[in-house]
Amino acid sequence: MRRLTWRVAEVVQIEGETATARTLGFQVPGWPGHLAGQHLDVRLTAEDGYSAQRSYSMAAPADGDYVELTVELVPDGEVSPYLIDELRVGDQIEVRGPVGGWFVWRPASKAPVLLVAGGSGIVPLMAMIRERRQAGSRVPFRLVYSLRDQDSRYYAEELRRPDPGLDISYLYTRSAPPGVRRPLGRITLGDLAEGGWPADFEPDCYVCGPTGFVEAAADLLLALGHAPERIRTERFGPTGG
Fold it and tell me: Own/partner pairs for 155-161, CB < 8 Å, 24+ apart?
């Protein structure tokens, strides 16, 4: 097994996503590459030697030494406030990865894909969407994206652009844009039946978001007849940020 080592990552690009999230692009010399859906560890070290580390999903497919993360602010966190409020182009941090081999999508796969995102759980799923586009894959994707309101939507402009073979359903839990007919609320069986694939199509299902969301969505997919081995989940919860 390849041993992961810490590498210096230099910020080369910063882009705002929402009022509390931004996307950071890094050059990481010697980066070994990664698969869509994998994550990495970030380590910050203070002058007194104290260090803190957190894991973040990568938001884009492999592109040489370039790595992209989208980070959501955790107000009382140790790492995310620095990444959101302090980091500037030219600054350096340490990263280690890639990590994970189960929650990944490979362009060689021919099965239709259902992506189910809760809030910032869209990040690794967006890497899959971008990987599909980059690879010129014709595998059909469907994305069911649950979020509080339209202002909390990540990658808003990119997801508005036409992307043949990608169908998107938005679910809102607190407030919805004008014209949205679906009632506000959490994800339901009907949402996944309408926005997803029939179970007999044997799609690969990827679910990412807060623990409660992931558990609920996975249970709904099982209730719709999807095979357990085709449902892959990635969850996050309070980790200190």
Answer: 155/17, 155/122, 155/126, 156/17
Distance of CA 213 to the CA centre of its chain: 14
Neighbours of 51 (CB within 10 A): 11
Query: What is the domain range of residue 37?
Result: 7-99
The predicted pLDDT at position 5 comes to 95
What is the torsion angle, in degrees rounded to the nearest 10, for the CA atoms of residue 52, residue 57, residue 63 and residue 65?
10
- Dist. CA 175–CA 198, nearest whole Å: 29
Q: Structurally, how many domains does the chain consist of?
A: 2
In this structure, the answer to whether residues 87 and 202 fall within a common structural domain is no
The answer to whether 177 touches 203, Cβ cutoff 8 Å, is no
Is the residue at 108 inside a domain? no
**What is the per-residue pLDDT across 65-94, written as a single tens digit (0 to 9) for each?**
999 999 999 988 899 999 999 999 999 999
